[in-house]
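Batch job 17 of 40 flagged for manual review because the log was empty.
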Amino acid sequence: MVFVPKRPSKEKVQASYKTIYLNDDVIAKLEEMAKEYDLSFNAVVVSMILHCLELDEGEN
């Protein structure tokens, strides 16, 4: 199954800042995906995290 990032909702949600450290190769791949789908880097990362959390919930 190929992951396709989702465009973020226009709805305002409460959010907080967190700092994460990623391998430069991972950052390059995420930036490439963001460009391909015309999304921000943050939108791609958030979409991936939410997708993984949904998969995890489906397994439990």
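Reviewer: the log was empty due to a logging misconfiguration, but the result itself is present. The chain has a mean pLDDT of 90. Unflagging and moving on to job 18.
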